[in-house]
Amino acid sequence: MIPTPDISDSEWSVMEALWAASPQTASELAKTLRPTTRWAENTVRTLLTRLVDKGAVSTGENSAGTRTYLPAVKRESCVRAEGESFMQRIFGGAAKPLLVHFAQNTKLTAEEVRELKKILDQRLNS
User: Fold this and answer.
1) Phi, psi of 83 (to 5 degrees)
2) CATH number assigned to the domain comprising residue 47
3) What is the DSSP string of the chain?
4) pLDDT tens across 101-121, in order?
5) What is the residue range of 113's domain?
6) What are the DSSP E strand ranges found in 29-92?
7) Which residue has better confidence, 48 or 95?
8) In the predicted model, is pLDDT for residue 2 greater than 70?
9) 22-38, pLDDT tens digit by residue?
10) pLDDT per residue over 34-51, tens digit each?
11) Residue 86 shares a structural domain with residue 121
12) How many structural domains does the chain have?
C-alpha cells in the first residue's frame, strides 16, 4: 500500500479544490482559490509542484495541450491519515481521550449524538 503523503494546510486547500473538480489547470485552480486565499498563480503553481513531488497530485494535458492536475490520492485516505496523525500527536494514539474531548467540548445535536451512539454500538457488536 502506498503511504498517504504528508500534506500541509496550504496544500490541503489545493487538494480540496482538486477533489471538488478535476482535472484543472494551474490557472483554473488559482482562479478557484483566489477568493478564499488571495494567492497569486505562482503560489498555486509552487504548491502544485510540491504536491506532484509528494505523489499527491498527478498531471495530464487537456485538449489544448495545457498541463492539468488531478488528485492521485483519495480524500478519504488523506482524512484518515490526518486523523491518525492528530490522534497520535495530541492524544498519544489513544482514541478514548480524543472521543471524550470532542464529546465534552463540541456542541452536538441530538441527532449527532444518536448517530455517534449507533456507530459505537456497531463497533461493540462487530
Assistant:
1) -65, -45
2) 1.10.10.10
3) -PPPPP--HHHHHHHHHHHHS-SB-HHHHHHHHHHHH---HHHHHHHHHHHHHHTSEEEEE-TTS-EEEEESS-HHHHHHHHHHHHHHHHHTT-HHHHHHHHHHHS---HHHHHHHHHHHHHHHT-
4) 888 899 989 999 999 899 989
5) 94-126
6) 57-61, 67-71
7) 48
8) no
9) 999 999 999 999 999 99
10) 999 999 999 999 999 999
11) no
12) 2
Cβ atoms of 57 and 72 within 8 Å: the answer is yes
Indicate if 20 and 53 belong to the same structural domain: yes
Which among 67, 59, 82 is positioned nearest to 12, based on CA atoms?
A: 82
pLDDT per residue as tens digits for the range 54-69: 999 999 999 999 999 9
**Residue whose C-alpha cell reads 490557472 in the numeric block:** 27
Do 8 and 52 have their domain in common?
yes
pLDDT value of residue 35:
97
